[in-house]
Design a protein that fits this description.
Radius of gyration: 26 Å
Number of strands: 4
Largest sheet: 2 strands, antiparallel
Strand order of the largest sheet: 1-2
Structural class: mainly alpha
Helix content: 40-55%
Order of helices and strands: EHHEHHEEH
Number of domains: 2
Number of helices: 5
Distance between the termini: 26 Å
């Protein structure tokens, strides 16, 4: 397998006025009545942006993201295992760099993280105190599941063999915990289910 995905196409954008206002008034506190210097910078920004837009139309808006993917036959012998090695680091980075959280279903998280366990919201459109915690928990379950999929021997955590020449293959099973192994596998399956359910919410 060989995958090469280029960056998203950029556009020329002038932010002289925006940067000035953010620095002067903070990001969310722009006043309704601006100073004269603010209007001057806004006019300068608009003028420069018009020039930029010509170059954007000529060049930047015509560019597309370059994606090249080559799949080799061995990649699909265990496709679930192959993809896990790609999905896992992407999920880890997503959790580290995300800037928000989607709406999630209470049934997908433990009771203590559900919206019904949070303090009452002041307004209906507000997010509850567990909103971001739920998404972190769901991401953690996805990450855990794909980490286990990347392990070739997770099942060996729940059994032990010892050398025994009397056995057909020279090994004898001396310990096994099927209950714990099944619980482990069910948790993995649930992590993959969450990945599928919230696939379209995997954005930064």
């Amino acid at each position: 397998m060989k995958v090469k995905i280029g960056g998203y196409p950029n556009r020329l954008i002038c932010n002289i006025h925006s940067n000035h206002m953010n620095k002067k008034y903070d990001y969310l506190d722009w006043p309704d009545n601006q100073d004269y210097e603010d209007y001057v910078l806004e006019a300068i920004e608009d003028g420069i942006q018009k020039v930029y837009d010509v170059f954007n139309w000529i060049w930047f808006d015509r560019r597309t993201q370059k994606i090249k993917v080559r799949i080799d036959p061995p990649d699909t012998w265990s496709m679930d295992h192959t993809l896990a090695h790609i999905i896992l680091p992407m999920l880890v980075q997503l959790k580290r760099t995300k800037h928000g959280a989607p709406c999630t279903n209470d049934k997908d998280v433990p009771k203590e993280l559900r919206s019904t366990s949070a303090a009452p919201k002041e307004n209906e459109y507000d997010t509850d105190d567990n909103h971001f915690k739920r998404w972190d928990w769901i991401l953690d379950e996805m990450i855990w599941a794909f980490h286990q999929k990347c392990r070739d021997d997770w099942e060996s955590d729940y059994y032990e063999y010892k050398d025994d020449n009397t056995e057909r293959f020279g090994l004898k099973l001396v310990w096994e915990d099927r209950t714990a192994s099944e619980a482990h596998h069910q948790r993995m399956t649930n992590g993959f289910r969450l990945f599928g359910k919230y696939y379209e919410n995997l954005w930064d």
